[in-house]
Amino acid sequence: MSGRIEPPPGRQRRWMLLAGAVLSVAVGLVAALVVVPAVVDWTKRCGEGVARVGPYDECVGVTDGSVVFAPELADIERRIREENGDVVARGADYVSVVVLLPMTVRADDVVSMAWVRHHLEGAHLAQLAANKTTLMGGDTPLIRLLLANAGSGVTQWRSALAELERRRAEERIVTVTGIGLSVDNAVHAMQRLAEVPMPMIGSTVTADPLAGVSGFLRVSPTNAALARAAANYAVGEGMKRAVLVRDRNPEDRYSVTLGDEFAKYFPGDFAGHTEPYDSLNPGVDNTFHHMMPNICAAAPDVVFFAGRARHATTFIQALAERNCRDKPIRVLTGDDMTYSPIPDDAVATALSTEVSVFYTELAHPRAWDAPPPNVFNPHSIGQFGDKCQGQVCYRQLSADRLDDAVAIIAYDAVLTAVQAIRLAAGDDGHKVTAGDVLQTMPRLHDQTAVQGASGRMSFDESGNPVNKPIVMLKLLPGRPPEFEGLSWPGK
Predict the structure, then answer these.
(1) E-strand stretches of 180-299
(2) What is the Cα–Cα distance from 187 to 101, expressed in whole angstroms?
């Protein structure tokens, strides 16, 4: 039997329409709650494994080179991405080494984009040497290079490490290199990596307290070694009276420990009081001018400046305006001078008022020709030379000078990682894990020391290179710094 369906009476029909509308709105709201977060998350993505985070919307995370963090890094990231793809295509066993750095740089940062680029160029050169030569303890496993941006000043380290940990197994990550800065955020990142646990090999990281972090080696000398080498250089140059100018900013471990260690190792007299300042507070430029009367009265042979290069610039400008401009003053400082050099006009003005500036450096191409012989690995330094032929040559990557040492140190950090990885692999091609690398890192000393481009690295039980040569440079206007020679922290 069939029949026509009659619509309900008017009032009932209105309620049914109202209920249907309410239901539609509810469904729409649920859909919005599901869809909108996905849309918001998508808008924050910079690419696979990288998202915009923090107050400056920096692209933070881990990439194989596919996500370009800055236009200045496009070429080197392309090269890294291509080598990573070739490693996978070759079908051989491979592992991944992560370069963790602040790869987005702001105007007031202590490092520049050139510093980041040189870091990646040096790391990539070591990757090529590992994959395309037999100079790094065998030829397997092959090395992929992943890039982890921790944000300006390493402030977004949590997001970067969260992505690193998420992809650890699928990407076969066994070591982290780089880090680069001796600041609190970097220390927090290292402490987190120690908990994972993940082996770490620091590049341009010099602050002494970092030696207590588990699973950490550094290829750079510590601030204690740099300060001792500076003190030895000062004594060798006849400097007997010193004034210490130091940054008391507790968040900057580089400046604090550099001041502590120079005060500890300088064997001469300290003329007058230490002149402190705090870079966390305003008025730093002004307080440098207030230091001048006491510095002039102390008549030191040397002023040791324990602070960042950007503050050294204004300090040296203040020295050029001191009342005792007829008295020569030598300024001695640390390797940060390389990353934010003093403008040529400020250097020229300082020199015209009898101020000369010297600083320690982590490596330098002129050091390769300095005595004593056999300090540097000829195969490694050959890859940086202008006469290098073939694909594994720095000049294939960059025409830049090597004066800032960053490419050399970054190369040595990855070189150290590769040596530890291949020692763990052994002759039978054992599948290497982060735990295996942690076991082999303490073997890198004496007969199995790493022969690097910046010097021989025999690591002590704290993960520091023992008695590594330290370069001394003199600042000059309008041209590269002048190589003064090598100084040794243990001599």
Answers:
(1) 200-202, 216-218, 241-247, 269-270, 275-277
(2) 13
